[in-house]
Specification:
The protein is built from 15 helices and 22 strands. The chain has two domains: about 1-215 and about 405-490, Ribonuclease Z/Hydroxyacylglutathione hydrolase-like (Metallo-beta-lactamase, Chain A); about 220-405, Rossmann fold. The longest helix is centred in the first third of the chain and has 27 residues, at about 85-115. By secondary structure, the protein is an alpha/beta fold. Helix 4 packs antiparallel against helix 5 and helix 4 (about 85-115) packs antiparallel against helix 8 (about 280-290).
Amino acid sequence: MKITFCGAAREVTGSRHLLEINGKKILLDCGMAQGNRKESAEKNRDFRFFEPQKIDMAMLSHAHIDHSGMLPYLVKQGFKGQIFSTFATRDLAFYMLADSAFIQESEQKYLEKKNKKCEPALYTSVDAQNAMKHFVGVNYEKATVITDGVVASFYDAGHILGSSQIHMIVNDKETGKQYTVGFTGDLGRKGLPLLRDPQMLPATDYLICESTYGNRFHAAIQTVEQDLADIINRVAKRGGRIIIPAFALERTQEIVYYLNILLKEKKIPELPIYVDSPLSGNVTEVFKAHPECLDEDTYNEFLKDGENPFGFDRLTYTKSVEESKHLNEMNGPMIIIASSGMCEHGRILHHLKNNIEDPRNAVLLVGYQAANTLGRKIQDGMKIVNIFGDAYDVKAEIINMDAFSAHADRSDLLDYIKRLNDVQPIKKIFLVHGEEGQGLDFAEFLKESGFNNVEVPFAGQTFELPETSDISSALSAASASATDANVKTYQVPQAAPSPDQE
């Protein structure tokens, strides 16, 4: 087996990892690179390390665009195989990919109208629809033979709705041996609202692990309600607006969830709240359609009793462009939530353009800001930023709340890896989906914690596995007895117990 790291290698976005097993090529994720516009465009227009028409199948960890956003382009360039994902991810991808295409087409038209230089859209709405024809939905914890010699099971990653870790049992026909590969996708945090906590993977020989916050620790989630209330009260008192760039998927629903609580408890004034994203409305409907992904508290408190945690009196979901434009003509304090979360595309750009130069306003950053994105530049304190090619003075208050992050931090990641290693020693760990400094720092931290076989791969770097004398023997009896992956009687590997189960 070979693994080639084709994206999100020493960077965060553009997740793409290629496995070559028994003559088949399997792609884990096919995400869109984001950040520096010129560099990202080059990475997205040329897959560089593989030919789309030669990929046999793909598996998708979750529906965020940096993991799913290039699937329509993959299909457009000749991919004909199946795309395996959870059912919730499949349903979310339908909206996410269509929205991505619409944004690309709309921005191209807008910039052309302004006589600005722009790249043509990577794919169209029709391309996004064509990509959906390749999806195959699978349930959590259900073993699926995806190709000769490979059985895959999806486990809840606790990151966003439908997010998954992927565990593979591989029967290597060249060596006649059997081993396991795990991919965390984006690993979530314990104790977040709405979603279940991340599951542990079964015993894993080779682990591909994210490292987004590999050298950082999050603020405590327990204080997030009061912190958010303090910000809203402070900005509203001076008559300002609170502009919240948020991914339409997950982060928007989480913010709305907290705002609902704060209003019910009368901790913030009853100012108008707008979710300026048609996509967010569609995503919210998918949330309600997949209670199997929600934690028990959310299910019992809201959905079981018919209450909608994502809709209340002070909340308005805007749909049309005219409604969006009207928000910038209104007076008085308000909260506007719009995507994208890294301020790279979408309606948030128009709201920043119209509000970032007013010192009464605040821009509240609630998610990870990748290097070279507009969101990162604002977060880093740049005094002048370019939006649609024009310069704007940053006079609004800039606030960062990383307690909202849906990514595991260093302590979460170390705890996860230690617990997985306790089930069976991990033979090699590959750190991906983290900026170079994050990955290298976390690799060093892991080595200090006793994990000596850690790699932080470069883009395009290939590893051949298993290495010499590096074959796992600790597989379940049911798995070991199935020497031919065409036999569809594999038992689902049992995940390691969560802390709550011990």
